[in-house]
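User: Run a structure prediction on this.
Assistant: Running it now.
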Amino acid sequence: MASSSATFSVIGPDVSIKGDVSANADLHIDGTVEGDISCTSLVQGESSEVRGGIEAETARLAGSVKGSINVRELIVLKTARITGDVHYDALTVEQGARVDGQFAHRGAAEAARRAAQPAPPQQTASPRPDSSKPDAPKVEGSGGSKPGGDEPKLTLAG
């Protein structure tokens, strides 16, 4: 008998879970989950309800989701009702699906997140002891053959 390395877990229609669900495999949900879901691949049945965030490589949604979704590949079927923001790499939405939230490509969202982070502080050279005006700012070229070597640096002495 050959053993399969693929694992598939099912949350049946009669099952209701309060708490986060994490699976290292594929997950099929027909019941209700009140909590965040993290898995490799998610298939959601039409009568299923998820109240929490979804994080997966792929997701095929047909039921109700109230929470943010972050997936590489997303298929939203016509019976799906999503309330929350959706971040994706590839997206398919069937006519008739309802989404109340914003769609954002994960590459654009990542770029916006990086742009919102403060720039790392730049190093300044130590003040020169032989300066004739120690309180005056000095503008120096970085010199050398490094790329961007013509960009001036501002060094405050004092």
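Helices lie at 106-116.
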